[in-house]
Amino acid sequence: MSRVLVTGGCGFIGSNFIRQLLAGDESVSVINFDALTYAGNLANLEDVAKNPRYQFIHGDITNRDAVRAALAQNVDSVIHFAAESHVDRSIQDSGPFIRTNVMGTQILLDAVREFHISRYVHVSTDEVYGSLGPTGLFTEETPLHPNSPYSASKAASDMLAMAYHHTFGTPVIITRCSNNYGPYQFPEKLIPLFISNLMRDESVPVYGDGLQIRDWIHVLDHNAGVELVWRKGRVGEVYNLGGRCEKTNLELTHTLLDLLGKPKSLIRYVADRPGHDRRYAIDCSKIEQELGWTQRWTFEDGLRDTIAWYQANTAWVETIRSGEYRNYYERQYGRR
Ligand code: NAD
């Protein structure tokens, strides 16, 4: 029996990961360690809450005692998703990003070392590489050049993790993935923000000229990669994950309008995000060749499935939209 501690398991990617892991392998048990910030939602894992191989601990990774107590429960692996994850919020206030992403990771790494955890998978982002021109791809060798407070805090945590590996032999493996989409994503991020606005015939805020390019991957394909890295990845290595699916934000907006049958007049151009990265694109051939990872979702199927999920889960969306999120939205984009 393998006992895995997942941090941030009540968020978008972590909750999908835990569901996938518990369904796929009966010899795995999971401790979900999550602080339940604005982005953490117990409802994301309601369906597994009673699974005897699942345990939830309400804890903060910046709390050393809480982290140590959790790792003392015969944990053999740690998969670290917990983070402050939204670039726009990091521009409004970078403090929580440094606290959780940098200091929290340091505390977790200390505990991983102390309890002789056999594998530590550090889930990171392609944003640590910075921004690309019109050509080229990020590889695992691309130097880190983060441009936002969010990506700077993630790059700091990546470097700290690798420094622990180098200095203490901590069994660190890093994954760096491009933009995820799929069910349970908090509606501050582009795709669920636009779907949930359009479902209510509200306008969608497009930053600047809308020609920023992002690479999109379905969350379940990302998570399949994280699981493979956990099982078979080489310690001390970085593995990029991406969807080979570059779209401008405007292209994506038009696709969403078409799929939801809404008029182009709902596009509202707003001032660009300060320091907005222009293009991300990722070379994921290392994980394909070394670990046999492949994508299962096409963007078209994944997007249709995601829209259907949001349409079927309006209560989940509305609970979020009526809470703290509403104040954030008005600060960021003005009134709807
Ligand atoms: P999310 O914001 O949806 O969820 C983050 C989770 O972490 C929440 O459940 C929150 O309660 C928890 N958390 C935050 N601070 C914590 C703390 N101090 N202690 C314990 N738990 C805490 O984020 P997500 O989109 O699911 O991203 C998960 C990870 O994947 C992050 O590390 C992010 O950098 C990385 N990532 C995200 C994307 C993406 O497109 N969303 C892409 C690549 C990598």
From TrEMBL:
<dbReference type="GO" id="GO:0009225">
    <property type="term" value="P:nucleotide-sugar metabolic process"/>
</dbReference>
<dbReference type="InterPro" id="IPR016040">
    <property type="entry name" value="NAD(P)-bd_dom"/>
</dbReference>
<keyword id="KW-0456">Lyase</keyword>
<feature type="domain" description="NAD(P)-binding">
    <location>
        <begin position="5"/>
        <end position="306"/>
    </location>
</feature>
<protein>
    <recommendedName>
        <fullName>dTDP-glucose 4,6-dehydratase</fullName>
        <ecNumber>4.2.1.46</ecNumber>
    </recommendedName>
</protein>
<keyword id="KW-0167">Capsid protein</keyword>
<keyword id="KW-0520">NAD</keyword>
<dbReference type="InterPro" id="IPR020904">
    <property type="entry name" value="Sc_DH/Rdtase_CS"/>
</dbReference>
<dbReference type="InterPro" id="IPR036291">
    <property type="entry name" value="NAD(P)-bd_dom_sf"/>
</dbReference>
<keyword id="KW-0946">Virion</keyword>
<dbReference type="InterPro" id="IPR005888">
    <property type="entry name" value="dTDP_Gluc_deHydtase"/>
</dbReference>
<dbReference type="Pfam" id="PF16363">
    <property type="entry name" value="GDP_Man_Dehyd"/>
</dbReference>
<dbReference type="GO" id="GO:0008460">
    <property type="term" value="F:dTDP-glucose 4,6-dehydratase activity"/>
</dbReference>
<comment type="similarity">
    <text>Belongs to the NAD(P)-dependent epimerase/dehydratase family. dTDP-glucose dehydratase subfamily.</text>
</comment>
